[in-house]
Amino acid sequence: SYRENILKTAKALVEDTKLLVSGAASSQDKLAQAAQSSANTITQLAEVVKLGAASLGSDDPETQVVLINAIKDVAKALSDLIGATKGAASKPADDPSMYQLKGAAKVMVTNVTSLLKTVKAVEDEATRGTRALEATIEYIKQELTVFQSSEVPEKTSSPEESIRMTKGITMATAKAVAAGNSCRQEDVIATANLSRKAVADMLTACKQASYHPDVSEDVRERALRFGTECTLGYLELLEHVLLV
């Protein structure tokens, strides 16, 4: 019932994305119009995706979560894109901010494409688990890119908090192994949803702890390296589950 409306609104958002990117090199008025238009379109898209998720019924909450996660990814990518557009406005073509803008636009289109694939797979019981897993793998890769950037976190946390967050990885790993053994679509969907949260929480806690005032440069580098290695190892596990 809602698929066509979601597809139509998502296409409109892609057009808004193009206007945002081109707007960085044009007038402030055009840039403001593009930003306002994209904000309106993402609001419409979020509403229609929520209606679509609700129409699946409460007996399938994990698939509802997959849809909500997909639109959250698009909204986050749009926010990052608007930020990148703001940074690149009126800058020359070879300015580093222009490369950041192109990167943000690419992530935006990737996430819209991922949303559309998810919407199409929702009613196909044979593929919706695999689709959820593919979306989670893409999400974790994007989170890892943010983790590896030189951007300093807004707040710091204790090493104990970072240790506590690794427990989620242990639970998610057990769930992933069980899903690989059962090959049931619902188990794979539950693994995909749990994995997103577990890895994102671990990366956030790890980076915040590594920038704690009491942490030395050497320890920070090691903590960030192990956070990356843990994520890459977990991605490899999910790729195996996908293969199975």
Topology (SSEs and partners):
Blueprint: H1 3-23, H2 28-55, H3 61-88, H4 96-121, H5 128-148, H6 159-182, H7 185-210, H8 217-243
Entry summary:
With 244 residues, the protein is mostly helical.
Describe the structure.
With 244 residues, this protein is mainly alpha-helical. The protein has two domains: 1-123, Talin, central domain (A middle domain of Talin 1), CATH 1.20.1420; 149-240, Talin, central domain (A middle domain of Talin 1), CATH 1.20.1420. Helices cover 82% and strands 0% of the residues. It is built from eight helices and no strands. The radius of gyration is 19 Å and the shape is flat. The mean pLDDT is 92.
Helix proportion of residues, in percent? over 70%
CATH homologous superfamily designation of the largest domain: Talin, central domain
Mean pLDDT across residues: 92
Main beta sheet strand tally, sense and closure: none
Detail the poorly predicted runs.
none
- SSE pattern: HHHHHHHH
Put simply, the count of helices is 8
- How many structurally independent domains? 2
% residues in beta strands: under 5%
End-to-end separation: 32 Å
Please identify the top-level CATH class of the largest domain: Mainly Alpha
* CATH domain fold name of the largest domain: A middle domain of Talin 1
Main structural class: mainly alpha
What is the rounded Rg?
Answer: 19 Å
Q: Any idea what the shape is? A: flat
Q: Give the name of the CATH architecture of the largest domain.
A: Up-down Bundle
